[in-house]
Design a protein that fits this description.
This protein is of the alpha/beta class. It has helices at residues 22-71, 73-78, 81-88, 151-201, 215-287, 295-326, 338-355, 373-389, 435-440, 451-461, 487-490, 516-528, 539-547, 567-577, 599-607, 619-634, and strands at 97-104, 109-114, 124-131, 142-149, 334-337, 359-362, 368-371, 395-403, 407-414, 466-470, 476-483, 508-512, 532-536, 554-558, 589-594, 612-614. The strands form four sheets. It has a five-stranded mixed β-sheet with strand order 6-8-9-11-10. Helix 6 (295-326) crosses helix 10 (451-461).
C-alpha cells in the first residue's frame, strides 16, 4: 500500500525558474574563480604592457630629441633657420615622428617639420630638450621639441590584447569543461541519493544506492541504505497493524450493524406483537364509560384510560424509532400553511397543559412552508410534549420567525429546569434522559428518552437539524429551520373547511382482524357508536359476512393477517366480489390499521392510496379517520 503524505514542514522541492542544478553550481564554482583570475591577470598584463610601451616610446623620443639638439647646436647659435630646416628634413622619412620644432630662447619657432603620418597620429609622446651652446659658459640658444607618435605601439598593443583574449577564452573553455566534468563526478553520488529519496517519498520499498566513495560521501550512502531498510521495515509493520486494525474495525462494524439490525427487527416485532393487545385494551377501556353513571367506576375507567394513553405514548415512540430505522418513513414534500398545523398542536396539548396548570401559547403566523406535513407535525408535537413533561411552572411558547429570505424557524420555549452544557448533545441520543430532569418529574409520566432522538432523525430526513439553546435554571429553546413555500403558495388565502360532524351512528362497518380480542373490542366500541358491525378474520370470512348483508359503508382491516395474508389482499378480494376493476370507483371506504413497521409492507399500502392508522388507535382518532375516509369516497 503506497501512501503519499504531504508534510507541511518539508520544503517545496519544485524547482523555481532561477534555480540551478547541483552540477551547474559546482561548475560555476570552478569557472567563476578561474574567470575572475584570468581577467585580473589579463588586465594587469595589459596595464604593464601599456606602461612598458609608453616608457620605450618616451625613451626613443628622448634619444631623438638629444640627437636633434646636438645636431642643431651651431645652427641655433648662428640663428640659421635654413640649416635648422635641413636638420629637421629627415623627419619626412620617419613614420613615428609627428613633429619637430626648434624654438628660440624666447619661445619663437625657428624651424618646424611634420612627419608623413602627422594627420593620423592622435596620440603621441612630446619631449623637449635644451640645445647646449658650443661655449661652455654661454647660455642655451634655444629648445628642440619632438612629438613621437604612438599609433604603431597602439597597434602592437591591440594585437597583443587580442592574442591575450583568445588565450583567455581557450583557458576558460578548458576550465569550464574540466569544472563541469569534475562537478558531474562529484555530484553523481549526491544526485543518486536525491533520486533515491524521491523514490522513498513516492512509496518505494528497499531503495538502495551503491557505495561508490569513501569518506563523507561513502558514510552518507551507507547511512541512507541503513535508513531505507529501517523505514521499509517500519512501513511493513505499520501496514500490518493498519490491516489488522482495519479488519478488526470491519468486524466490529459488522457486529454493530448486525446488532442495529437485530434491534430494529426486535423493535418492529415487539411493536407489532405488543400493540395488538394494547389496541384491544384501548377499545375495551373506551367502552367502559359507555352508559356508566357511577362516579367511582367512571374514575376507575378514567385511570385505566390514562394508563392506556401512557402505554400508547411509549409504544408510539418505539414505533416511530423502528419505522425510522427500517426506512418505512420517507418524506412527502408539499406546500401548506403553518398556522393550521399549530392549531392542531394546540388542540392536542391544551388539556394536558391546563391539567398541569401550565400556559401553552402558540403564536399565529401567516407563513407557508415546503416540507412533509406529517413529519413536521410529529416534530412539533414531540418538542411540545417534551417541554410540557419537564416544566413544573410557567409554560411553553411556540413561535415562528423568519430565517433569511428562504427559511422559517419554529421555536419551542419552555420555563423548565434547563439542560446543563455537558448534556446538551446527549439529549438527542436514544434512551438518554437527564437525571436531574427525571428526578424533578419522578411523580409524573415520562417517556423512554426517544422523543428528541425521533425529532433529530425526522429533521435529518427533512434535510434540516434541531438546535438547542439552554441554561440550567432558565429553561430551554428547541428550534428547527424549514424552507419557506414559494411566493405563489404564500399568497393563497387560507381556507377553513367546514368541519364535518363526527356522528358515525348508523354506519355499516366491516372489521377484518386476526385477533379475536380486537374484534370483540371493536364490536363493543361500534355498538357504543350505534354502528352496525360485522367481523371477519380473513378474506373468506369477510366475503361470507357480506353475502346476506350487502356492501358496507367502510371496511377497517388489519394490514397483517394470519397465514401470511394481508389486508390489501382482503380488500382486493372484496372488490372482486363486487365486480370492481382496478381504477374503478370503489363501493366502500377503507382504512388499514396496523402495528407493522416493515418498510415494504407500508410502501404497498402507500402505493394503494389507502389511509393507514397505527395501533393502538385512540377511539376519537379512529372516528375522525372513518369520517374522513367516507367523505373522501363521497367526494
Amino acid at each position: 500500500m503506497n501512501t503519499n503524505v504531504h508534510n507541511p514542514a518539508m520544503p517545496d522541492r519544485r524547482r523555481r525558474p532561477y534555480d540551478l542544478s547541483l552540477v551547474a553550481r559546482l561548475s560555476l564554482l570552478a569557472i567563476v574563480p578561474a574567470t575572475l583570475i584570468a581577467i585580473l591577470l589579463a588586465v594587469l598584463l595589459n596595464d604593464n604592457q601599456r606602461r612598458e610601451v609608453e616608457r620605450v616610446t618616451s625613451a626613443s623620443a628622448e634619444v631623438v630629441a638629444e640627437n636633434f639638439a646636438a645636431a642643431a647646436s651651431s645652427a641655433m647659435k648662428q640663428g640659421d633657420r635654413a640649416a635648422l630646416a635641413r636638420i629637421a628634413k629627415p623627419l619626412a622619412s620617419n613614420t613615428d615622428l609627428v613633429r619637430v620644432q626648434f624654438l628660440s630662447r624666447d619661445g619663437e619657432i625657428l624651424a618646424e617639420a611634420l612627419g608623413p603620418t602627422a594627420a593620423s597620429q592622435s596620440r603621441y609622446v612630446e619631449v623637449s630638450r635644451k640645445i647646449r651652446s658650443t661655449i661652455a659658459s654661454a647660455p642655451s640658444p634655444g629648445w628642440v621639441r619632438v612629438q613621437f607618435g604612438l599609433r604603431r605601439m597602439d597597434d602592437i598593443r591591440t594585437r597583443q590584447a587580442q592574442a591575450t583574449a583568445a588565450v583567455l577564452a581557450v583557458c576558460l573553455v578548458i576550465a569550464g569543461v574540466t569544472g563541469w566534468r569534475v562537478a558531474r563526478r562529484v555530484s553523481a553520488p549526491v544526485l543518486e541519493l536525491a533520486e533515491a529519496v524521491d523514490k522513498l517519498g513516492r512509496g518505494g520499498r528497499s531503495v538502495r544506492v551503491p557505495v561508490t566513495r569513501g569518506g563523507e560521501i561513502g558514510h552518507l550512502q551507507q547511512g541512507f541504505n541503513a535508513a531505507s531498510v529501517a523505514l521499509t521495515e517500519a512501513w511493513e509493520e505499520l501496514e500490518a497493524r493498519i490491516a489488522a486494525a482495519t479488519s478488526e474495525l470491519a468486524h466490529k462494524n459488522a457486529k454493530l450493524e448486525a446488532a442495529s439490525q437485530a434491534r430494529a427487527h426486535f423493535l418492529a416485532a415487539a411493536s407489532h406483537d405488543l400493540r395488538q393487545p394494547l389496541y384491544a385494551l384501548t377499545l375495551f377501556s373506551s367502552a367502559l364509560k359507555v352508559g356508566e353513571t357511577d362516579p367511582a367506576r367512571l374514575t376507575r375507567a378514567s385511570h385505566i384510560q390514562e394508563c392506556v394513553a401512557t402505554l400508547d405514548g411509549l409504544f408510539s415512540e418505539l414505533l416511530d424509532l423502528s419505522r425510522l430505522e427500517s426506512g418505512a418513513m420517507q418524506p412527502a414534500f408539499s406546500e401548506f400553511a403553518l398556522d393550521p398545523l399549530l392549531e392542531d398542536v394546540n388542540r392536542t396539548f391544551r388539556m394536558i397543559a391546563e391539567k398541569r396548570e401550565l400556559r401553552l401559547v402558540l403564536r399565529k403566523t401567516d407563513a407557508w412552508v415546503h416540507t412533509d406535513r406529517v413529519m413536521l407535525a410529529r416534530v412539533i408535537n414531540n418538542l411540545v410534549s417534551n417541554a410540557l413533561r419537564y416544566t413544573e411552572r410557567g409554560g411553553v411558547l411556540v413561535g415562528v420567525r423568519r430565517a433569511g429570505d428562504t427559511h422559517v424557524r419554529i421555536e419551542v420555549w419552555d420555563t423548565g429546569p434547563g439542560i446543563a452544557p455537558e448534556y446538551q448533545t446527549r439529549v438527542f441520543e436514544e434512551f438518554f434522559q437527564v437525571e436531574q430532569a427525571r428526578a424533578d418529574a419522578e411523580n409524573r409520566e415520562h417517556g423512554l428518552g426517544l422523543g428528541l432522538a425521533t425529532v433529530n432523525r425526522l429533521m435529518h430526513l427533512l434535510g434540516g437539524e434541531v438546535v438547542l439553546r439552554s441554561r440550567p435554571g432558565s429553561g430551554s429553546v428547541f428550534s428547527v429551520t424549514i424552507p419557506r413555500a414559494g411566493a405563489e403558495a404564500s399568497s393563497r388565502v387560507r381556507e377553513h373547511p367546514t368541519e364535518a360532524p363526527l356522528d358515525v351512528s348508523g354506519l355499516r362497518v366491516l372489521v377484518i382482524d386476526d385477533e379475536r380480542a380486537i374484534l370483540e373490542g371493536m364490536r363493543v366500541l361500534m355498538h357504543s357508536w350505534n354502528c352496525d358491525m360485522r367481523a371477519a378474520e380473513d378474506a373468506e370470512q369477510a366475503v361470507a359476512a357480506l353475502r346476506d348483508w350487502g356492501p358496507p359503508d367502510i371496511v377497517l382491516s388489519d394490514l397483517k393477517l394470519a397465514r401470511g395474508r394481508t389486508g390489501l389482499e382482503a380488500l382486493q378480494r372484496l372488490d372482486a366480489h363486487y365486480g370492481v376493476d382496478a381504477g374503478a370507483v370503489r363501493p366502500f371506504a377503507r382504512l388499514l390499521i396496523t402495528g407493522e413497521t416493515k418498510g415494504e409492507r407500508l410502501h404497498e399500502a402507500t402505493a394503494a392510496r389507502i389511509p393507514v392508522l397505527h395501533k393502538p388507535v385512540p377511539p376519537e382518532r379512529l372516528r375522525e379517520a372513518m369520517m374522513a375516509a367516507i367523505l373522501t369516497k363521497q367526494a
